[in-house]
């Protein structure tokens, strides 16, 4: 069975999807030169990589010596949509079921990024790959969602920080991954999945024509190991006398060798489109590479006048971290084409030099002394319309009103963590009859964690709850969760963290990801509160661990 994003959008299939263990024969077939029957040498495994450390010990891309090491943004940052706005760069990603969503990130050098504000606060469905544009002084986001019915919306703002308009449906129910483009005659278009496009009105807020098919993407050899053809993620760029279209094919996940980047060009926005002679431009050729399933690329001119591309990929062995944001270098060739020059991205690349780069990232630790950073740091999973009313910050504590009976029904409060090993801990105080705890959350059917009520512990594993031994601490304790390369352990403390006792139940979570469950998400750390009353969370500390 082939499972791709367009099929998921149409069928709402989110059941378990198995991934067959890759074989040596399959790998070699994928790497074989088309038409030759010969197999190139298998690459050596990627060397160990050492990142600099930032807030909470989180890895950061900028190595401080004029080079950077991918990922440029770690954790689940899929389908990057990049906008160059003078000397500033703005970036956002598919946010799926997390709200507030579509957080805008800001950079001046394409490597060091700061979160700003979320553009989308109302739950309109699962948000997939968007288009972030600026046209005649106004900012636009074109947003495909999986909902009932599926739809593509547009929102707009006169400042990148908003306020953003309410979402306006465009009436496109059969496509994903819109890309806004302006033709040589000033006409506005949305290019869509499958090689289609539709004309927009002059103000960009409605359709001005019917969907038409304009491009048949390049197709890979039939003996390559892929998830499916699935042409999606078109990105249109104008450079010199040409329009360039980048497209993702091969499927978003599935075999590590599947997802890839192809390109075409045309003299006019109306075509005809000429295939790049070097297709595919980006592809994981072997499972030993540092990054798997690389695709969904955009081009951008850097502050140094060189060109770069941003795309996503899974880290080797860590599907659980989702699709991370990767930066690659571009070289324009004499024939008017371009090529990516970063190889498999396992080695450092030069950082575009600017006078004042921004500091990178943000701390995930939170002492709850300031208003909660909803959207830029914390987010809900599939929230209801009034979900934010469950939260208030007072006297150094997050007061989190209970909902449902477990994380599955309680819209937990989650973070994006981009390290392969980390721990987080928090002081938790319950209301009578309430339950709360720490979770690693993929979705409402697949999560792991530890909670407690005033009488006993409860473990969460495979998305199920099980009562555990008596709780000796009553309604208040400090709890710690450690995820070290998918091995999960728990500790509890009754004296504020002075002494700890290991909980007698461990877990292994390497299978908590899309290729098993579907959904295109990541395993996210967070907090939950269930049952009556409100739980109080204090002194949340996150620490990234070096493997």
Structure, explained:
By secondary structure, the protein is mainly beta. It has two domains: 5-13 and 56-350, Tachylectin-2, Chain A, CATH 2.115.10; 379-544, Jelly Rolls (Sandwich). Helix content is 3%, strand content 42%. The strands form nine sheets. Strands 6-28-31-41-33-34-35-36 form an eight-stranded antiparallel β-sheet, with no helix packed on it. Strands 29, 30, 32, 37, 38, 39, 40 and 42 form an eight-stranded antiparallel β-sheet that branches. Strands 9, 10, 11, 12 and 13 form a five-stranded antiparallel β-sheet that branches. A hairpin with a 2-residue loop joins strand 18 (232-239) and strand 19. The longest helix is centred in the first third of the chain and has 8 residues, at 24-31. The chain is globular. It starts with a helix and ends with a strand.
Structural class, by secondary structure, is mainly beta
Instruction: Give the mean pLDDT.
Output: 92
Separation of termini?
36 Å
Share of helix, binned: under 10%
CATH class of the largest domain: Mainly Beta
Remind me, CATH topology of the largest domain?
Tachylectin-2, Chain A
> What are the low-pLDDT stretches, counting only 5+ consecutive residues below 50?
1-47
Strand count, sense and barrel status of the largest sheet are: 8 strands, antiparallel
DSSP summary: helix tally: 3
The global form is globular
């Amino acid at each position: 069975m082939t499972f791709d994003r367009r099929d998921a959008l149409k069928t709402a299939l989110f059941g378990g999807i198995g991934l067959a263990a890759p074989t040596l024969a399959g790998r070699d077939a994928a790497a074989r030169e088309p038409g030759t029957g010969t197999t190139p040498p298998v690459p050596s495994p990627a060397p160990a990589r050492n990142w600099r450390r930032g807030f909470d010990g989180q890895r950061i891309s900028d190595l401080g010596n004029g080079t950077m090491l991918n990922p440029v943004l770690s954790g689940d940052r899929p389908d990057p949509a990049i906008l160059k706005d003078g000397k500033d760069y703005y970036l956002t990603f598919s946010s799926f079921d997390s709200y507030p969503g579509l957080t805008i990130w800001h950079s001046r050098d394409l490597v060091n990024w700061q979160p700003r504000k979320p553009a989308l606060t109302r739950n309109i469905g699962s948000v997939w790959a968007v288009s972030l544009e600026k046209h005649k002084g106004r900012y636009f986001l074109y947003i495909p969602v999986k909902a009932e019915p599926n739809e593509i919306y547009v929102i707009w703002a006169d400042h990148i920080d908003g306020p953003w308009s309410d979402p306006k449906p465009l009436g496109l129910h059969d496509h994903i991954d819109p890309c806004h483009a302006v033709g040589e005659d000033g006409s506005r278009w949305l290019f869509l999945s499958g090689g289609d496009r539709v004309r927009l009105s002059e103000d960009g807020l409605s359709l001005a024509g019917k969907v038409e098919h304009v491009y048949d993407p390049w197709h890979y050899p039939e003996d390559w190991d892929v998830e499916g053809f699935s042409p999606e993620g078109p990105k249109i760029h104008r450079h010199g006398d040409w329009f360039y279209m980048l497209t993702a094919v091969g499927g978003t996940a599935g075999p590590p060798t599947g997802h890839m980047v192809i390109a075409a060009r045309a003299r006019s926005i109306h075509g005809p489109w000429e295939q790049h002679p070097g297709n595919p431009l980006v592809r994981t050729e072997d499972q030993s590479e540092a990054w798997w399933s690389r695709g969904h690329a955009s081009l951008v001119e850097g502050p140094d006048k060189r060109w770069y591309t941003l795309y996503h990929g899974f880290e080797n062995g860590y599907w659980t971290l989702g699709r991370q944001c990767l930066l690659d270098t571009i070289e324009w060739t004499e024939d008017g084409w371009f090529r990516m020059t970063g190889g498999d991205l396992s080695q450092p690349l030069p950082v575009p030099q600017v006078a004042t780069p921004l500091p990178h990232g943000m701390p995930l630790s939170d002492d709850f002394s300031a208003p909660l950073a909803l959207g830029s740091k914390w987010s809900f999973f599939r929230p209801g319309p009034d979900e934010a009313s469950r939260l208030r910050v007072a006297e150094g504590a997050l007061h989190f009103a209970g909902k449902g009976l477990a994380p599955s029904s309680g819209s937990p409060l989650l973070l994006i963590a981009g390290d392969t090993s980390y721990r987080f801990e928090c002081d938790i105080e319950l209301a009578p009859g309430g339950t709360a705890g720490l979770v690693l959350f993929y979705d409402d059917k697949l999560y792991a964690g530890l909670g407690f009520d005033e009488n006993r512990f409860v473990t969460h594993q495979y998305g199920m709850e099980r009562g555990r031994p008596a709780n000796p601490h009553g309604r208040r304790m400090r709890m710690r969760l450690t995820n070290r390369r998918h091995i999960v352990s728990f500790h509890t403390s009754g004296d504020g963290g002075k002494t700890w006792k290991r909980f007698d139940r461990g877990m292994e979570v390497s299978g908590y990801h899309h290729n098993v469950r579907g959904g295109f998400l990541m395993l996210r750390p967070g907090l939950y509160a269930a049952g009556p009353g409100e739980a109080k969370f204090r002194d949340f500390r996150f620490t990234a661990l070096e493997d």
